[in-house]
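User: Before I run my own analysis I want an independent prediction to cross-check against. Here's the chain; please return only the structure tokens and, at the end, one sentence I can use as a sanity check.
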Amino acid sequence: FVMAGGKRRSALWAGLVWNHPDIEDFIKAKNWSIDVKAMKERDFSYPASLDMTNISVRLDSNFFKEIKSNPEVWEFYYRICKNMCKTGEPGFSVDVGDQANHILRNPCTEIVSDTDSDCCNLGSINLSRIESLAELEDVTRIGIRFLYKGTFVSWLPHPDFEEVRKRYRRIGLGLMGLHEWCISRDQTYEPSGKLGRWLSTWQGVSDDEATKFAKTCHDVRPIAVRAVAPTGTIGIIGETTTGIEPIFCVAYKRRFLDKDGAWKFSYVIDPTADRLITQKGVSPDQIEDSQSLAKNVEKRISMQAFVQDFVDQAISSTINVPEWGEYGNSTARKFAEVLLTYLPRLRGITVYPDGARPGQPITSIKYETAKKHKDTILAEAEERCNAGVCGI
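Assistant: Structure tokens:
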């Protein structure tokens, strides 16, 4: 794998169709042993099966037909959901309707394709900074032109990519700041008529501009136009919430590997939450985040399904749930039933139970605690002593 920043390996995506002969082994491929988890706790780079690979069980139209009448398919689906609730693995990828053959995905799964060597030019509109539908239309048209032009000039490593790009001109105009948009308008993190009007404008204008601008350039229209990427780094740069995700934690303790090679901790108030609290007078207790929403998983899933209705590719989003056995994540059968009602509308879903991976970098804490210790950085040993478990 390519190493980013000298520390982290880049990710891959791997999918296997639900009725493949090896599917049972595939589902359990990342159920790492206690010993492996312990080693990865000490050294995140310690090798483990399919590490740095996002795995998904691919669901096709036949699956949704079979699960209605075949109890064995339901039990198979339930076993996967139970594993998701316990370990976060695997996810689901959905390939139905007019995109049934679009079974290939990039590592974060927002791009879908039916062809090897496909590529895409991604960009995101910061929805939280848009003041009106008229401004959204202008920014959307500019974004489409910018991304489309980028498909003519960006470097590609192999001629196969060049050939597919000429045929497809695939782009992915996405969104970030959706949750901040909701908070700023006194809306909770859920579908609404107003949000639907904004998303419909984004959808209609981007399709219209993709068609018109391709004609202006005397080239093919992009085969697909919209995709919602995670926008982790650019969301931070844009000082807003990432993708369609809610604020992860209003306040949290962050574990990071410092430049001296030592693990350290810092206390952080989410910058977007901090701005809303200090500048707009929003109460910290009134801000929903992924931790509070984790106890109402249907609210998260329904929001993703709602936004997906306006996206012609896919959405990269992780549904946070409590640790297995805790309130909100103790009944996998209920989770499976809720998910199945939305699953045909989704292009994919990923779940992360709190604490499911060793070395988890972020832990939710109280706002008052983070405010008291803001900008404090402690070495891992100091943090353990601070927590009352210092060794002798």
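Sanity check: The chain has 15 helices and 15 strands.
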